[in-house]
Every structure is written in structure tokens, then in C-alpha cells.
Amino acid sequence: MCPDLLDPEIIKQDFPIFKRRVYGKRLIYLDNAATTQKPRQVIEAMREFYQDYNANIHRGVYRLSVEATEAFENARKKVAKFINAKESEIIFTKNATEALNLVAYSWGLNNLREGDHILLTEMEHHSNIVPWQLISKYTKAKIDYISIDKEGLLVDDEVDRLMEKRPKIVSITHVSNVLGTINNVKKIVEHAHKIGAITVVDAAQSVPHMQVDVQEIGCDFLAFSGHKALGPLGVGVLYGKRDLLEDMNPFLGGGDMISRVWLENSEWNELPWKFEAGTSSIADVIGLGAAVDYLNSIGISRIRKHEIKLTKYALETLSEISDLKIYGTNNLEQRGAVISFNLANIHPHDLATILDEEGIALRAGHHCAMPLMNKLGVAATARASFYLYNAESDVDALVEGLNKARRIFKL
Ligand SMILES: Cc1ncc(COP(=O)(O)O)c(C=O)c1O
């Protein structure tokens, strides 16, 4: 076999969940855009923490605490290297949502005012819309949205037109969680910087699946969630450029984020701890470090290659099903491993229920992207999203399940 290609059946052996049966059938997990399954290595790293050196970090001088602190900060090193950042620029949050809120509140609230513009796109997840709507209410800054075309790609002319309004901040998703569209964030960041805007990249759907290099993109901030990258739930990451982070006020106040506290005021801790108030999700951060090790051991570019191959196969086979409408582009260079679709007028929830009986876990709904659903003219879609452990046989099972749905609904 070509060493460049992954063998999902071998990879699956690292994921204990695939041993289980669903209604007596093998589990076909196609909801990776929502959250991913965890390899044994991640589960083991977290178990080891709780079993062998559970202690709070940064404060203790005793052995357990020193070990916990080392493991925690070591995970930060791994994450920083993974996206080509400096350790001091990696802030652990609860998830991507909290990371985006951190930028909105700590940067937006202090830097935006009436007459300013915030630039987003129509394909954003609610996590990259709602925080800005809140900030817009407080500051009276206006939000503009770059529209998408029929293929689900950003309209270039719209980017140019809206940049002319000289937005103070441009916050865009790298990969759409509905359409799979991969946006040319490097180009948009360059354009935004030319007009003096600050840039934020929502990388929740890209960091787990393709090489993301913050230096190469050049963005000011970048957010993602550990749980979508084989890591545990409860930990996210915000990358931010040092000078910007230095200038910003903390998002949350409390322990760990201060250097000194008086009754009247406080002095902030150094980066990155200035933005990590309270006890962190220590085991989760350590688990994320193990997830990064795992992804590195497989190779992120091999994962991307595997996903391109699988997406191509899925787009081809799904397009043979009559009455199936697939959203997004067919250009695999511009598409991640996410396929949203509707089958005739069957409600996506009914589809998901029929597929569930076949052991297929697939998402149906608005995918936290209601403005995008409005744009597509639907209330909901079904969505299959793949990862390194998915195989062509999973796609075949999906096709079979959809044909079963056609029979049930007498299409
Ligand atoms: C593009 C995108 N951004 C942000 C998020 C929010 O991630 P989380 O719920 O882990 O904060 C998601 C989750 O689906 C997403 O797909």
C-alpha cells in the first residue's frame, strides 16, 4: 500500500469505541464535525493524570503538582508547535466558542465604537456570529456579512466591496461546518491587514484536518476546539499575536491570571496565563497534548489526503442517488470532508433516524448556522462529516441507508 495513504481499518483499532455495536451493527460514525472519537492514547493520558499525578498546577511545590504543571505546559508546547506559534501565544479555553468570545470581549469591547464595522461571512457558525452581535449591541459597531455564491464559495467582489468600508475586525471561518468550503484565509487576512483590520480565523473545522500554520496565514487570532481534533471535551485553544494579547484586558478574572492583587486593583499575570483564570481543565489539556502527538504520528497531510479521497468518493456515489441535493462545491481543493445534503422533501431528522437504525451516526439540523440555512433556503440539512478512521465502506453504508429511506418514503 502507498505509505501516503491511511488504512482506516488499522486506525480504527486505536479507538475503543469502534468495538461497540449499535443495534447489533457496527458503528459508522459520520458526525466528526460535531465531535470526534478519542484514541486509546488520549484516554490513557487522561487516566494517567487522574490516577498517578492528579494535583492543581502552577501553585504547588510538591512533586505531584510539579509533574501536573510540567505535563500541562508540555501540552501547550505541543499545541504551539502544531500550529507554528509561540507557547506564550497559546491560551487554553473551554472550547472554540469561548476563544472567539475572548477576542470579542477583550479586544472588541475596548476597540470598537459607533461607526465601526465588523466583517463576518454568511457561512459562520453561531459561535462566530453571536459574540459579535453582543459586542455590536454594546459598542454600536455594525456587522457586515460577505455573501456566498451558489457553490458555497465567498464572493470575491463582495470581499472587496465590504473591505472598502474599512472594518476594524474581520472574523471568518477557515472551513465551513455545513458546506465544507475552505476559505482562502491567507488572502483575506492580507487584504484585511492592508486596510488596518485585525483578523480572526475560526479554525474549528480546519486544525483537526489539514496543516494550519498561523505564521503562514498571518492572522492575529485563531480559535479551535480540542474535541474536534481527537482530544477531550472541555478544552479549546486561542492563538493570539503577542503584542495584541499584551494590550488587551483579561476576559475573566480570578486565580492564576494575576501577579498581584490589592483591595483596590490587581496586576495581571504574564502571557498566556493572563487569560487563563481559575483552575484549568488540566486533564483535558494533557489529553489534547496526547491528541496532537497522535495526529503527528499519523501525519496531518496524510489525513487531509485521505479525506480528499473519501470526500471525492462520497460526492460521486451520493450524486448517483436521485432526488439528493448536495450543498457546496465539487472542487476538492476548496472543500473539507463535510457533506450536507437533503433527500427530496424528507425531513433530515427522519433521515437521521432511519440511518441510526443502521448504526450510522449522522447529524441533522441547522448545524448552528441558521443564517446559512436561510441563505440555502432550507430549515435543516443532513450532514456527513468524515475523519481519519472513516472508510469507503462507511460511505457505502450511508448510500445503502439513504436508499432504504427512499424505499420507506416510496420515492
Ligand atoms: C466552524 C465552527 N466554529 C465554531 C464551533 C464551535 O465549537 P465548540 O462548540 O467546540 O465551541 C464549531 C462547532 O461545531 C464549528 O463547526
- Please give the share of residues in helix: 25-40%
Largest sheet: 7 strands, mixed
At CATH's second level, what is the architecture of the largest domain? 3-Layer(aba) Sandwich
Write out the strand line-up for the largest beta sheet, numbering strands in chain order. Answer: 4-10-9-8-7-5-6
Derived structural class: alpha/beta
In CATH, the topology of the largest domain is named Aspartate Aminotransferase, domain 2
Question: Any low-confidence stretches, pLDDT <50, length ≥5?
Answer: none
N-to-C CA distance:
41 Å
Structural Rg: 22 Å
Number of helices: 14
**Count the strands?**
17
Say which CATH homologous superfamily of the largest domain is assigned: Type I PLP-dependent aspartate aminotransferase-like (Major domain)
Q: Please give the CATH class of the largest domain.
A: Alpha Beta
Q: Provide the list of bound ligands, each named once.
A: pyridoxal-5'-phosphate
Oligomeric form of this entry?
single chain
- What fraction of residues sit in β-strands? 15-25%
Report what the structure shows.
The chain has 411 residues and is an alpha/beta fold. It folds into two domains: 8-30 and 300-408, Alpha-Beta Complex (Aspartate Aminotransferase, domain 1), CATH 3.90.1150; 43-296, 3-Layer(aba) Sandwich (Aspartate Aminotransferase, domain 2), CATH 3.40.640.10. The chain has 14 helices and 17 strands. It has helices spanning 8-12, 40-52, 63-82, 96-111, 130-139, 156-163, 185-194, 214-217, 242-247, 282-298, 300-318, 348-356, 370-376, 392-408; strands at residues 21-22, 25-26, 28-29, 90-93, 117-121, 142-146, 169-173, 198-202, 221-225, 236-240, 258-261, 266-268, 324-326, 338-343, 360-361, 363-365, 381-385. A seven-stranded mixed β-sheet has the order 4-10-9-8-7-5-6, with helices on both faces. α3 crosses α10 and α4 (96-111) packs parallel to α5. The longest helix has 20 residues, at 63-82. It is globular and about 70 Å long. It starts with 7 loop residues before the first helix and ends with a helix. Bound molecules: pyridoxal-5'-phosphate. The site of pyridoxal-5'-phosphate has 14 residues, from α4.
